[in-house]
């Protein structure tokens, strides 16, 4: 089953309603800049059973590839999930807010 992709504007709309923005990048990527309010869970430790199937998820990584893998895992567990097309690169290019850990 294909995972629906959303652009940064749609991702922001979904997260402003009820969806969780799930960032599956590595720790150093997260620290370098992430979306405000995002939840960080590295792809390598992602357990779909940790997510409430009633809460939609927008998965994000650097470019959209790893988040696509994460989205597939979540969808297989019954979670409503979207993949942010173009990842954080697209997010930043669209002028969406980014925060750093420093």
Give the helices and strands, then pairings:
Blueprint: E1 5-6, H1 8-17, E2 20-23, H2 27-32, E3 39-40, E4 57-60, H3 65-76, E5 81-84, H4 87-93
Parallel strand pairs: 1-5, 2-3, 2-4, 4-5
Short description:
The protein has 102 residues and is an alpha/beta fold.
What features would you describe in this structure?
The model has no long low-confidence stretch (mean pLDDT 95). The protein is built from 4 helices and 5 strands, in the order βαβαββαβα. A 5-stranded parallel beta sheet has the order 1-5-4-2-3. It has helices at residues 8-17, 27-32, 65-76, 87-93; strands spanning 5-6, 20-23, 39-40, 57-60, 81-84. α3 (65-76) links the parallel β4 and β5. It has 102 residues and is an alpha/beta fold.
Order of helices and strands: EHEHEEHEH
* Fraction of residues in helix: 25-40%
Shape: globular
Uncertain runs are none
User: How large, in whole angstroms, is the Cα Rg?
Assistant: 12 Å
N-to-C span:
39 Å
Beta fraction: 15-25%
Instruction: Give the averaged pLDDT, no decimals.
Output: 95
Total beta-strand segments: 5
Q: What's the story with the biggest beta sheet?
A: 5 strands, parallel
* Structural class by sheet pairing and helices: alpha/beta
Number of H- or I-type helical stretches: 4
Give me the side-by-side strand order of the main sheet: 1-5-4-2-3
Keywords:
single chain; 102 residues; alpha/beta; five-stranded parallel sheet; 4 helices; 16% strand
